[in-house]
Amino acid sequence: MEIFVIGLSHHTAPVEVRERFALGGDLARRFLRAVHKENVLEEALVLDTCNRTEVYFVSRRPADSLAYLLGQIARIKGVAPPRDTSMLYRHDGASAVEHLFRVAAALDSQVVGEHEILGQVKRAYRTALEERTARFFLNKLLHRSFRVGKRVRTETELCRGAASVPQAGVNLARQVLGDLTGRTVLLVGAGQAAELAAKALIRCNVGRVTVANRSLSRAEQVVGSLLRAPPDARGSDLDENGSDDEPDAVRCPALLRMRAERAAPHGAGASPPPPERPAQAIELGQIRDIICGVDLVICSTGSPDLVLRYDEIAGALGRSERPLFIVDLAVPRDVDPRLGRLPNVFLHNMDDLDRVVAANLQRRRREIPLAESIIKDELGRFVRWYDSLQVTPTIRLLQEHFGSLQETEIERYGKLFDGDRRQIEQFTQGLCRKILHQPIAFLRELSEKATFSDRLAAVDLVRRMFGLDAREQDE
To answer: pLDDT tens for residues 8-39?
Structure first.
């Protein structure tokens, strides 16, 4: 099986190493475009999250692939290729398939059972389709991984009440700061992680929330989605105790006040709304103006560069005596590590979530064997499907299929020509051989000249055309 994966994750490398290989934002798409143009790999897919960067690929020259992949990443990121590759891992064949299944099932996540990973795998697949690097084999493999993820979600309790990475970041803040009620919060980034963090923060009764993003309109959308949420809205993630007993809006007096202000008529005799709002959207350049009045910062952008730079905000933070807790969920990191040296700044990144995750894993450990049994079952199915698409057994099945057709027809019509039965057998055998000559020659040529994916696709078509899968099952 000519499928491979090369990557690194929170299991093998700290965040300062992972960010060197990260292909966030548009970098993954640029990588796939280069792969498609150069035609070195037959198929490729990039899975890049805050915890991992992995390249799944199909190649007949795997020995050359590592140097090629690292060189391609270095060119795209404008850096020198890394010399130390000891933290990278590689899986081949069925091992690569099993690894993807474990990733899609959230068994390989830092937060075991987290909700986001299956969506991230689907987005990676969609990008590969758009860049024409996912063909027959990766199409089959990725759809099977989606099935694995869905089965684990529905047939086990592994993902029931599972905290997401943003939720884990909020829980870390609660462990350090204690009660978050009334705390002033800055969310840097306006993607899915920011929205999940916002919902988790609302359940903690935080006070003012500011969303900063490169695109102000997108930050306003995140703020607006919170304000438009119905009174009985609930977040998709649960708190660290697995409880979602109270609606988000009911537990956030600040948002209730703002909704009341927006709904109240402001006629000639009505007072205008107060200038202070419990939620606002700003651009990244405005962060330095407000950060000294913030208690908690959660960063989750997809920027390849630092967003909170030491040279830009260290002076203001150094003059402030107000403690500031920062959780950097981004890879590459959003926050300059030097900010963590300031006496009033407490900086934590993805690697610091481990102690929060430990409790999450303990609660879900009993579900892991059941999830692994699902993966084993689906892996067996996939390997059997792959084995069925080999050229030699397909030719054998094709010959047996036509031999069976010949015997059936001789039995049906042989009585009409009792004296010439031998001639009928010779005639039908010769006819079947002539009919099969071109399909068999085509299949044999595939095994010598066609690409891995083209060969599998063609064999799959032949098997479906002649109903060979049903015949094999009957045997």
So the answer is: 999 999 999 998 899 988 999 999 999 999 98
